[in-house]
Specification:
There is one protein chain. This protein has 16 helices and 30 strands. The chain is an alpha+beta fold. It folds into 4 domains: 212 residues, P-loop containing nucleotide triphosphate hydrolases (Rossmann fold, 3-Layer(aba) Sandwich), CATH 3.40.50.300; 83 residues, Elongation Factor Tu (Ef-tu), domain 3; 112 residues, Elongation Factor Tu (Ef-tu), domain 3 (Beta Barrel), CATH 2.40.30; 181 residues, P-loop containing nucleotide triphosphate hydrolases (Rossmann fold), CATH 3.40.50.300. The strands form 6 sheets. Strands 7, 8, 9, 11, 12, 13, 15 and 16 form an 8-stranded antiparallel β-sheet that branches. The chain has a 6-stranded mixed β-sheet with strand order 2-3-1-4-5-6, sandwiched between helices.
Length: 610
């Protein structure tokens, strides 16, 4: 039997994807009698074919899907024939559920892209094709459905097939097999149709049973990302993971990336005993000799085939977040078994859905495809996605909501980590702080305009300097006269503003200073990014709290009045959001506390952690 084939079924809404899959399951005798009884009952309530069974309901499992007659979630089904086993992902067609479709495509070897013979190639057809190609699918079946509704018109079929092949040229698809089908009648799915005698190609099932969808990346040398370090007792240390490529046997020489530490595979441990070899897809535990330092996220590789290590990449991405992708905003990145911080440093272009045109873009909206530059907070071992799905595919996670914001694929490194390194000096931050007889740290004041940040910051610095401390105050308005004078007040500019300030504050703390940073800094993710630059205990988030109404009454600069009159756009608290700190280190309610009381609370907190 051929290896299991994973394929995704996709296309625009109402192209008949669920009906096609239901028909295949029924015709290959994969449906139990009680399932058909349920489908018959549901067909009378939700179906579109009168008293006849609506086979789409075999896979449209959600209540909303049944009531609306659409696919929302990805429905997975496994079935097999005497020649092959299949795992199919039935993906939603609506544009707002494109992210679900990308999930289904992420593990597929092949895509069945459906289109309605009456409508031809639609924008969503093109979008799905570009996404599956971006996610490494190189074999596509173009299933031109509902041919019975165009009287099996050969010219119509060939015109659609020719248009589709022209549109996918140049996006990495190596094989397109076009098949005229009718999901309703089953023609050319599992059996040949009598009305299409002009078609001499395979049926859909024949093609799926025989296609070789193995990717060149499946033939790479040994690689295994470490998922877990197993220490059940002091005498055993094993490294657990799934083999991403190649094979490994006891006695093989390996390297631990990114450190490049050499070792030898001592044994391969699985449930119930040991094995003499492990191959791609196997989940195993390796023991090494000698016992070297290995952590989750490291990759064990063949000694003669080391992995690249980098911290800057060019990547393709499909954006899934409700909020736009913004340059400079920090995200969490999952790359194989690594989880680390990442920032999009540049949007190179947005990809036109229909023609693949490179379009200028300041940000990416939900369901957009684009090419970006990406920087990670530390060097990571990787492989370009075209070489290895497991080591080159990643997701970005929104720091505030923990939702998946984007799915991407690494194309190549922009700067190899070996080219840059931290230069060590004899005089470090600890020495500089000791000379000043203080603990260097960053005091980050956040709050609405007119909440009292500048007043508290100014008084706080005076109090600290009077006590012999060495300080520097970074103020938002002051920095916009120089370092950040090129930035406006769009969301992207606000993100970049805070990124620059945080980097400057880090350098000043490294100089041994107590840095007071007074900025609205409206977004939690940017404040978390600032915190991430500092050692634990060196960053204090101080929430200077006052309601919008109170701030508008104070309004020392007249900004609220101008914003309410429409003279200022994107004004925080009115036309632009402010995300309140959830767990600040210090909470200053300036509606109830005087500036002197606020400063006293801050200094008390500083003394408690010194």
């Amino acid at each position: 039997m051929s290896p299991t084939l994973r394929f995704v079924l996709c296309g625009s809404v109402d192209d008949g994807k669920s009906t096609l899959l239901g028909r295949i399951l029924q015709d290959t005798r994969q449906v139990f009698a009680d399932e058909m009884e349920r489908v018959a009952e549901d067909s009378r309530r939700y179906g579109t074919r009168g008293d006849a069974a609506d086979l789409a309901l075999l896979v449209d499992g959600l209540l909303d899907e049944r009531e609306q007659g659409i696919t929302i979630d990805v429905a997975y089904r496994a079935f097999e024939t005497p020649r092959r086993r299949f795992i199919v992902a039935d993906a939603p067609g609506h544009e707002q559920y494109t992210c679900n479709m990308a999930t289904g495509a992420s593990t597929a070897h092949l895509a069945v892209v459906m289109t309605d013979a009456r409508k031809g190639i639609l924008p969503q057809t093109a979008r799905h094709t570009r996404i599956v190609a971006m996610l490494g699918v190189r074999h596509i079946v173009l299933a031109v459905n509902k041919m019975d509704l165009v009287d099996w018109d050969r010219d119509r079929f060939e015109s659609i097939a020719a248009q589709y092949r022209a549109e996918v040229a140049g996006i990495g698809v190596t094989k397109v097999q076009a098949i005229p089908v009718s999901a309703l009648t089953g023609d050319n799915l599992t059996r040949r149709g009598s009305a299409s005698t002009w078609y001499d190609g395979p049926t859909l099932l024949e093609h799926l049973e025989t296609v070789d969808a193995e990717r060149p990346a499946d033939r790479q040398p040994f690689r295994m990302p470490v998922q877990y370090v197993n220490r059940p007792n002091p005498d055993f240390r094993g490294y657990c993971g799934r083999v991403a490529a190649g094979t490994v046997s006891p006695g093989d020489q390996v390297l631990v990336s990114p450190a490049g530490t050499p070792a030898e595979v001592e044994s391969i441990v699985v449930w119930g005993g040991e094995r003499q070899q492990a191959a791609r897809g196997d989940s195993v535990t390796l023991t090494l000799q000698p016992q070297v330092d290995v952590s989750r996220g490291d990759v064990i590789v063949a000694a003669g085939e080391p992995l690249e290590v980098a911290d800057q990449f060019q990547a393709r991405i499909v954006w899934m977040g409700d909020e736009p992708l913004t340059v400079g905003r920090p995200y969490r990145m999952k790359l194989h078994t690594q989880e680390l911080g990442a920032t999009v440093t540049r949007i190179r272009h947005r990809v036109g859905v229909s023609d693949g045109a490179e379009l200028a873009a300041a940000n990416l909206e939900r369901n957009d495809l684009g090419v970006i530059n990406l920087a990670t907070t530390r060097p990571v071992p990787f492989a370009p996605f075209d070489e290895s799905r497991a080591l080159g595919g990643f997701i970005l996670i929104d720091r505030a909501t923990n939702a998946t914001a984007g799915a991407g694929t690494i194309t190549f490194p922009l700067m190899r980590a070996a080219n840059l390194s931290w230069q060590a000096f004899d005089i470090d931050r600890a020495v500089r702080a000791q000379m000043k007889r203080q603990q260097a740290r960053c005091l980050w004041l956040t709050g609405l305009s007119a909440s009292g940040k500048s007043t508290v910051a100014n008084l706080l610095e005076r109090r600290l300097v009077t006590g012999g401390r060495h300080t520097y105050l970074l103020d938002g308005d002051n920095l916009r006269h120089g370092l950040n004078r090129d930035l406006g007040f769009t969301e992207a500019d606000r993100v970049e503003n805070i990124r620059r300030v945080a980097e400057v504050a880090r350098l000043m703390v490294d100089a041994g200073l107590i840095v007071i940073a007074s900025f609205i800094s409206p977004f939690r993710s940017e404040r978390e990014f600032a915190r991430s630059l500092f050692e634990p205990g060196d960053f204090m988030e101080i929430f200077v709290d006052a309601s919008v109404e109170v701030c508008a009454r104070r309004d020392p600069k007249g900004l609220y009045a101008r914003a309410l009159n429409g003279e200022i756009r994107n004004f925080t608290g009115l036309s632009s959001p402010y995300e309140r700190p959830e767990n600040p280190d210090v909470h200053l309610d300036t509606e109830k506390l005087s500036p002197e009381q606020c400063v006293k609370l801050v200094i008390q907190q500083m003394e408690e952690v010194e």
